[in-house]
Predict the 3D structure of the following.
Amino acid sequence: MKQRLKLFLLYALYWLLIFIVSRVLFMLYSFNMSFEITAKEWFLIIAHGLKLDISATGYIMAIVSILF
């Protein structure tokens, strides 16, 4: 049981990190527009996007929990 819970949490963390890294990579890809904004706005983009990342991870994990 502990092993399944550990796997479930690691899988959720994996998806959350994928979403965060993809957002940062997208901002680096759109280099011209991304570096016109301040560091505070970069942080706010990451912070507000984290809500959506957690939501999307929750939907993915709901499907995974049904399959477990």
Notes: Residues 2-67 form one domain. Residues 30 and 67 are 38 Å apart (CA to CA). The mean pLDDT is 88. Helices lie at 2-29, 31-34, 39-67.
